[in-house]
Amino acid sequence: MSEDRTVLVTGAGGGLGREIARLLLARGLRVAVADLDEDRLSETVDAAPQRALVLPGDLTAEGAPEATVAAVVKRWGRIDMLVNNAGYGAIQPFLEMQRSTWDRTLGINVIALALLTAAAGRQMGEAGQGRIVNITSPASRMTLPLYTAYAASKAAVDAITRSAAVALAPYGVLVNAVAPGMMDTEMQKSTEAEIARIEGRTDIDAFLAERTARVPLGRRAGVAEIAESVVWLALDAPAYMTAERMNMSGGMDRD
Predict the structure, then answer these.
(1) Which neighbouring-strand residues pair with 68?
(2) 99: how many CB neighbours lie within 10 A of its CB?
(3) Per residue in 196-213, is it b (16+ CB within 10 Å) or e — as a string?
(4) Do 72 and 8 contact (CB within 8 A), yes or no?
(5) Which residues are known catalytic residues?
(6) pTM score
(7) Over the stretch 116-168, which tens digit does the pLDDT of each residue have?
(8) Second label for 76, Cα 20 to 30 Å away, from 9, 135, 155, 181?
(9) What confidence tens digit (pLDDT) does each residue in 41-83 have?
(10) How far is CA 79 from the centre of its chain?
(11) Residue 57 neighbours by CB distance under 10 Å
């Protein structure tokens, strides 16, 4: 029956979101992908365009989360799963933080995610089933004076995940989160490059090696293995699992 199931993946223009969308397409689902760049979205689903819906646009715009979910339902008559992967982060020293950074970070990571969850939750609730997976981060539990807005936004994702799980439980909808460790995505690379610049580190390889050494497993996460954990939560996890945070950080996030 997987051919009948539909999923919306946000932030699917590259990185983790692209890998998640491709794995879901490979499992036979109908996959809607949302991001800012239409061309990158088309590349994500080029292996199975007949089972894909490309939804370019800014999810922070007024009414965009609701309209995005509505577009999925209009196309396929249902939405069974939502993966809230879209995210934004900017490095700024704590004493130099700007409101624009907070507005953009919270707009994408918190407000859009919450409104997408509610919009999808209403549709799933009417059907009596559904699964929502939010992408959080070990940053939500860390002290990061160079990355405070991002860390705060991911702490909010954890709170939204728990609240949504309880609110939607009576309707048969499961809500969980995945906290990925360090992955060599475009966002991770640009973030670490900026941290190195601020800290005056010129030997980038040595800087990255030091950061990787903090991971108990001694390596960075592969994008594919993180995507596989998200797909497992969306498709295969037991139906009694909700309000959970799955740490996929190689042991960095041990609690």
Answers:
(1) none
(2) 8
(3) beeeeeeeeeebbeeeee
(4) yes
(5) 150
(6) 0.96
(7) 999 999 999 999 999 999 999 999 999 999 999 999 999 999 999 999 999 99
(8) 135
(9) 999 999 999 999 999 999 999 999 999 999 999 999 999 999 9
(10) 17
(11) 14
